[in-house]
Write a structure and sequence with these properties.
Blueprint lengths: L10 H9 L7 H11 L4 E4 L6 H12 L10 E4 L3 H14 L7 E4 L6 H9 L4 E4 L1 H9 L10 E4 L2 H6 L3 H10 L5 E6 L4 H10 L4 E4 L10 E7 L3 H11 L9 E5 L2 H10 L6 E4 L5 H13 L4 E5 L13 E4 L6 H8 L9 E7 L4 H11 L20 H19 L23 H8 L8 H11 L1
Helix pairs in contact: 2-3, 3-4, 6-8, 13-14
Length: about 450
């Protein structure tokens, strides 16, 4: 394995690398350095936690020369605020001896006026989420015609979040002649389409298949019937603070994240993070989890690849993710840098197909652990679970009502058509006296009313 001494790195950048105690380069860092430095379009596919950020930052910073121009030459796009903050922090760690101006821009509770001032003051590198970057470009504060290199980090999750339109809009502001650098944990159809549309003969390097489980992670699973029984099981498991000393729990929704924090027995040790939380709350929650003030962090998949926290002992999937790749991204938070990690999957009986999809992707069967006898199985249901149960019962009742005798015949296609619902009186009035959409519509509406 190559070390960073084998790379051609300028002295002041190498000094920062030495300060960070980086020694051996990861495979994705080895494969990407010379290619990106050479100016070719590049696509790197590698698992979460394999050093992808350093893989593109090192060659970019190596090639970046001093300039006092105001508009940025490097544009880095990331899907979440957390990842933007993380990338900016990494750039600052690599450039204490270099004169590099960098800023992160993102939406939410952050002040766009302050971000506009930072951009107007002059930047070499701008890192941001697509929507905020597009807003800044529309306001004409950010001009991107000087951008020489475009990096899209976690491009697969960027497209999963529905940012394809924003990306295309941003591309309209960029010069045609530029270097494109894409990094992703998975190669999806959407990623391939983006490559075909915007990249020119890219060099593609796949370091490891995203479905391969890491050797340093012990995986296990439990069959659990409902939310409150899962909470009881976690209360039982998390008592062992030595084994589970830094726990990241992934839930499927913001409602479940808040509810789980309320019912677990470790209130003083819990932080919660999801997209509805204010930015300051999110930053504080991650900081508390990073420095050990909080032992347990409850999170949604939004930040599955947006945070980089070392020494996580246990990752718990409170619900089985719909996309099997998301399970890989979840467990990739533990077992990093040679450390041992543990993954626990809690799944309901109806989620067995989702669990099997994960196992097929990994070519590995997750061991099933017997449910502890001392844990109480709760009959209490959440409102979401209760509604699903009622819907199923209603469906069964409707199906049973269709059972008929021998004289029963299916309706013909002609007679089985469902009549459209009668529009309400209010909607009829709105249609009759609709507001003019274009100039002249008001006159046309009057003519139509007179004819009636």
């Amino acid at each position: 394995m190559e070390t960073f001494d084998d790379f051609k790195i300028k002295k002041l950048l190498k000094r920062a690398v030495d300060d960070l105690a980086f020694e051996k380069a990861t495979p994705i860092q080895q494969e990407s350095y010379s290619t990106i430095l050479g100016g070719s379009d590049f696509v790197g596919i590698a698992q979460t936690g394999t050093g992808k950020t350093i893989a593109y930052l090192l060659p970019i910073l190596q090639d970046l020369k001093y300039s006092d121009q105001l508009q940025p030459r490097i544009l880095i796009l990331a899907p979440t605020r957390e990842l933007v903050i993380q990338i900016v922090a990494q750039i600052e760690k690599l450039t204490p001896y270099l004169s590099v101006r960098v800023a992160g821009v993102y939406g939410g509770s952050s002040n766009i006026k302050a971000q506009k001032r930072a951009v107007a003051a002059g930047l070499d590198i701008i890192v941001g989420t697509p929507r905020r970057l597009y807003d800044l470009a529309l306001s004409n504060v950010l001009r991107m015609k000087s951008v020489k290199k475009l990096v899209i980090d976690e491009v697969d999750i960027m497209l999963d979040f529905g940012f394809k339109t924003q990306l295309k809009n941003i591309f309209e502001f960029l010069p045609k002649k530029r270097q494109n650098i894409l990094f992703s944990a998975t190669m999806t159809t959407y990623v391939e389409e983006l490559m075909d549309d915007f990249l020119i003969n890219p060099v593609k390097k796949t370091i490891s298949i995203s479905g391969t489980p890491l050797d340093t992670i012990t995986q296990e699973s439990y069959t659990v019937p409902n939310f409150y029984t899962k909470a009881n099981l976690l209360n039982h498991l998390l008592v062992d603070k030595e084994t589970h000393n830094k726990v990241l729990i992934f839930v499927g929704s913001k409602v479940y994240a808040d509810r789980l924090a309320d019912v677990l027995d470790f209130e003083s040790e819990i932080s919660v993070i999801h997209s509805s939380k204010e930015q300051n709350h999110r930053v504080k929650s991650i900081k508390k989890f990073t420095d050990g003030t909080s032992r347990i962090l409850i999170a949604t998949d939004v930040i599955a690849r947006g945070i980089d926290i070392q020494k996580i002992s246990t990752v718990i999937s409170f619900e089985t993710p719909f996309y099997p790749e998301n399970y890989i991204h979840r467990i990739g938070r533990t077992g990093r840098a040679g450390e041992k990690g543990k993954s626990i999957l809690l799944y309901k009986e109806k989620e067995i197909p989702l669990k099997e999809a994960i196992e097929n992707l990994m070519s590995y069967k997750i061991p099933l652990i017997e449910f502890p006898k001392e844990v109480l199985i709760s009959n209490e249901l959440t409102p979401e679970e209760d509604n699903k149960t009622k819907n199923l019962e209603e469906e069964e009742d409707n199906n049973s009502a269709l059972v008929a005798g021998a004289s029963f015949h299916e309706k013909t296609a002609k007679n089985s058509k469902v009549r459209p619902k009668e529009k309400s009186y209010e909607r009829k009035l709105k249609r009759k006296y609709k507001k003019p959409q274009r100039r002249g519509d008001k006159i046309q509406n009057k003519k139509r009313k007179n004819k009636r």
